[in-house]
Amino acid sequence: MDNYAFQLYSQILKTFWRVFLIILGLASLIFIFPYVKNVLIMFIIAWLLSMLLSPLVDFLESKGFGRSWAILTVMVLILVLLGFSFSLIIPGIIRTVESLTSKLQSDVITELSTKIENFFEKNFNNAELARNVTVKLNEIGVKLLVSLGEFFKNVGSFLASMVVVPFITFFLIKDARRFKKAIISTVPNKYFELSLNILHKVENQVGKYIQGQAIDALIVGILSTIGLFIINLVFDNSIPYFVFIGMLAGLANLIPYIGPVVGAIPALTLAILNNPPGLGMVLLWIVIVFIAVQAIDNYLVSPMVVSKSVNMHPLTVVVVVIIGGSIAGAMGMLFAVPFTGIIKVTSSQIIWGLKNYKLNSSSPLKENLSINTEGIEN
Amino acid sequence: MENPIWGNGIFRKKKKDSNIFVLLRQVPIFSELSPKELTEVEKIVHRRKYKKGEPVIRTGDPGLGMYIIVKGSVDIIEEDDKAGRRILAKLTDGAFFGDLALLDESPRSASAIALEESDIIGFFRPDFLDLIYRKPKLGIKVLFALARVIGERLRHANELLIKTQEEKDASR
């Protein structure tokens, strides 16, 4: 009886420590998360990039390149391409924002202030109240401009992280197999084949999904750009920076259901702000272009390039996009769906593995065996 | 193996595990590979240690790849609901098993159980397919050798079948 009580006591103690350690682990994770959030995001971006670039690196390797040289070649090519695109697009965006800011400061707010002052003086005969309201309005305007400045500061830190991300990406591609071997070497023999199989399958499906999404986004971006370019030709440059808007639409397309709408908004907004002659027709054509691009994407491009294994319900998409946005802002919104896709693929593979591997079968050595050494079957 | 997280990733000396290197050379499917090509294979194999009585593979599990015994011994056991369990072979140092799983994911037809503490290396289909894509010349050499091994086994099985048939006919 004493022995039983001792066993029970040690069992309870063990369970207590286990629960305590889990709670401690979770608490420290929550405590550490704000400090490591940025690094974590950089690692995630680097990992996504490594998934995206690996096929190109493998292709160069099959043509006789060393792995490190293959990675460097692909990365330099992409950096040159991105640098060239940004050098074309970024100055244009800065000019647009500058002109918008000055327009807001000079015309709109002053005009609005005068109108409000007049309105209050006329209706309430209270000049002080009118002044208070205009002061408040000016404060809001200044706050808006400050937050716009903050946004560009964030863009600066984003560009800085773009230096670190390629560095991480390089090693993630170069040493992917070694990382995988190191991880799998810690798994007990019983779960070794199961874990290896799941890891390979998840890697394969997730890789295909990410590559498919990237190709899809690129095609949507190019088609949107061509559409906006044609509108510009017909309506005498009615949409400024159409290349940037087109590419933004491609990027927004990563978010199903919501993305296409989000992609069209910048084009419509810039067209309204530009106020070209025949604005109504321009807006109509922009909507037509985006609907046509979506139709081509849904019926031709997507079925060919995007993996079917991660189909999601529209409600799931909306929920995960909101959660992604609250965790990591715009980047979180952009990557929420791909990440949910990864979780979905991983969990379905784990379920497959648990169904197909006999993890709980007893060792055959425990039972009597008859001996026959005539042939080997594997 | 150097730890990829804490090890020096850039100025790293390439170490060769001579034991595995010599062993891989003795395996028929790798026999035609050059030392440089064998180094590529060495990079992707997994080395594991199994205790006495521990299963390496189990009947019915999806096939993932082949195993080569570096040191130790393994029983290949056929499990059948009606006939029970019987040992088909006992394999020791340098022997390999499960090579058919390099071709597809068909369920394992037999189990392999370590008879003593054994040092075993595994070569798996996903890594093999990746190798074929990245190093096609190397991949073709291994594929040809694998086809030869399977061909020989088929020939041997045919001979056994004919012999059995002849014995059956003679006894009538």
In summary, what is this structure?
With 378 residues, chain A is an all-alpha fold. Chain A is 84% helix and 1% strand. Chain A has helices at residues 2-62, 67-123, 127-174, 176-184, 189-234, 242-252, 259-274, 279-305, 314-356; one strand at 370-371.
What does this structure look like?
- Residues 363-378 of chain A have low confidence and may be disordered.
- Chain A is mostly helical.
- The longest helix of chain A is centred in the first third of the chain and has 61 residues, at 2-62.
- In chain A, 22% of the residues are buried.
- Chain A has 9 helices and 1 strand.
- Chain A is globular, with a radius of gyration of 29 Å.
- Chain B is of the alpha+beta class and 172 residues long.
- Helices cover 38% and strands 25% of the residues of chain B.
- Chain B has 4 helices and 8 strands, in the order H-H-E-E-E-E-E-E-E-E-H-H.
- Chain B has helices at 18-26, 35-44, 125-134, 136-171, and strands at 46-50, 55-57, 65-71, 74-80, 84-91, 96-97, 111-114, 118-124.
- In chain B, a hairpin with a 3-residue loop joins strand 4 (74-80) and strand 5.
- The termini of chain B are far apart.
- The model of chain B has no long low-confidence stretch (mean pLDDT 86).
- At the A-B interface, helix 1, helix 4, helix 5 and strand 1 of A face strand 1, strand 2, strand 4, strand 5 and helix 3 of B.
